[in-house]
Amino acid sequence: MANYGWADLDIKIDVTDGGALTSIKTHVRALTVGKRVRLSEENTTAGSTWEAHLLTGIRKMEQCTLEGVYDDTASTGPKAIFETSTHAVTRSFQITLGSTNTIDVESWILDFEAGTPSKGKVTWKATIQPTGTVTLG
Question: DSSP string of 54-68?
Fold first, then answer.
């Protein structure tokens, strides 16, 4: 069984609508990948003592968060990618785990913030909301 670490991970996003995927791994120090879930709805019949659920047939990927040390590099830093995005179109987002295991999805950039911790470097955090079909490679 293969074991993968941070060195085996890559995180890419298209900086402009329809643009090439750009690796942002060097700007990210923490990543939370949203769970892929199947949605269900409650379907308990009258008189039941236990709640019952039915699967709806709909799947989704929950929000992803990225964090790192702030960098205002003109075209490739987090500020350029997340804060100055028009937010009018989705962005292609790809996570590679290991050598070939990928997660590809169109996503909305929901928010971006830069903050100063009480000690240390200025940091940033962004939230991405996947939308539509998630392709697992």
Answer: EEEEEEEE--EEEEE
Do 131 and 64 form a contact (C-beta atoms < 8 A)?
no
Q: pLDDT (tens digit, 9 = 90+) per residue, 9-20?
A: 999 998 877 788
Look up the pTM and report it: 0.83
Q: What is the pLDDT of residues 12-41, one digit of tens each?
A: 998 877 788 999 999 999 999 999 999 999
The single residue listed with the structure tokens 């991970």 is 9
Look at residues 38, 39, 29 and name the one whose alpha carbon lies nearest to residue 6.
Answer: 29
Residues of the chain with pLDDT under 70: 1, 74, 84-87, 118
Label the pairing between strands 101-115 and 91-97.
antiparallel
CB within 8 Å of 87: residues ≥ 6 apart: 108, 109
Q: How far is CA 21 from CA 10, 11, 104, 116, in A?
A: 11, 9, 11, 29
Could you tell me if 78 and 27 are in contact, meaning their C-beta atoms sit under 8 angstroms apart?
Answer: yes
Q: The tokens 């999805």 sit on which residue?
A: 105
